[in-house]
Amino acid sequence: MHDVLVIGGGNAALCAALMAREAGASVLLLEASPREWRGGNSQHTRNLRCMHDAPQDVLLESYPEEEFWQDLLKVTGGNTDEPLARLVIRASATCRPWMRRHGVRFQPSLAGTLHLSRTNAFFMGGGKALVNAYYRSAENLGVEIRYESPVDRLELREGRFVAAHAGGRRIEAKACVLACGGFESNREWLREAWGRNERGEWPADNFLIRGTRFNQGVLLRHMMEQGADIIGDPTQAHCVAIDARAPLYDGGIVTRVDAVSLGVMVNRDGERFYDEGEDFWPKRYAIWGRLVALQPGQIGYCIIDSKAIGRFMPPVFPGVKANTLPDLARALGLPERRFMQTLDAYNAACRVGSFDHTVLDDCHTEGLAPPKTHWARPIDQAPFFGYALRPGITFTYLGLRTDDRARVHFDRRPSDNLFVAGEMMAGNVLGRGYTAGVGMSIGTAFGRIAGTQAARAALGEAAHAVA
């Protein structure tokens, strides 16, 4: 029997396994995917949002706790647990030396990643390099890893973990960490959550999955059926508007189109539907998937002109190009007359001041609904470009309620040997909304906590200290 069983194979699971092993526990990690697809959604990440009070290696200036908290408060609309959120924020200030010890390397922010050089530490080689570094370290430390080992159910006794069942095998452990993600890859569950809209459509049928196909939510559903305390809205998710040509699974970050704040977004009827310049893109990019999901056919179109080229990270697919706006409308299959009415009204409403996409500038619209609050410039310089966008689900926010010791709760009573980390509990901090890199902050913080607490539960409190 192992001391600690970790179920999952992404960032949070690996942090938990490493911490538990460092604390002296024997650890078994079960990853549902084959080895070549290991890492869950973490393989598609690229940075970690970090609190810091002064410049630190790849991080510029400072990003104090209160600013981080206010950023999170704003994007969630207050739908967050402040003590747990602040725990994550403070943990983000101290985790990088530990990450380096396990082989993770950092680099300065990339060109085109606006506003992140001060707030986010980028992984050298991206999320896949981070995941590989953690797996190497785990193997070197003696963590046993089994791939293609999805867990079907848990044996629980009065809120205590007894054993896991995976492919007909019963696996006992003294403590367990659940870190196997949400249900974003489960199309039927997405359909159930979103239902039909007023147009009779099933919105979820048009969702693309930015990350792993293996996050089916099997254990999340099982834990709900076992009476675990749940938190979150099943329709809330890290949901980004991504290129409609992206693959169904594992498109990752390269399918994102970061040009929205530099142009306008219209739906398939050729109408704008939200303020493209509401705030800095890293604080708003993750609202656009949900906004597009609410549009007819769950599709939107980002329209820019040549002035925007070179000011955003180029996506993997080129945009549709045309020399006139009517030609662009026809190329995108949009109603030309309504499209031109929308673009003409927008262009006429622009009040251009000192354009600067690195600040909340004074370029705005007047007398237009919805407005464009910043970076509003007429779309008038050929050639013109359009990107068809669909909702891209990264991870869902419905999850297990927890506390500052990462414990799973049953009827508000914490388990003493069952813990949770990562996307499976991110809804405690992210009731809605998102800001760049905070998912990795949550997974790293709670993965480390869960691993430490699981080792203590397995081996006894006196034998361990937080690494």
From TrEMBL:
Pfam families: FAD_binding_2. The keyword Nucleotide-binding does not apply. InterPro entries: CobZ, FAD-dep_OxRdtase_2_FAD-bd, FAD-oxidoreductase_2, FAD/NAD-bd_sf, Succ_DH/fumarate_Rdtase_cat_sf. Residues 3-431 form the FAD-dependent oxidoreductase 2 FAD-binding domain. Transmembrane segments: none annotated. Its cofactor is FAD. GO terms for molecular function: oxidoreductase activity. Keywords: FAD, Flavoprotein, Oxidoreductase. PANTHER family: FAD-DEPENDENT OXIDOREDUCTASE 2 FAD BINDING DOMAIN-CONTAINING PROTEIN, FUMARATE REDUCTASE. This is FAD-dependent tricarballylate dehydrogenase TcuA. It comes from Ramlibacter monticola. The gene is tcuA.
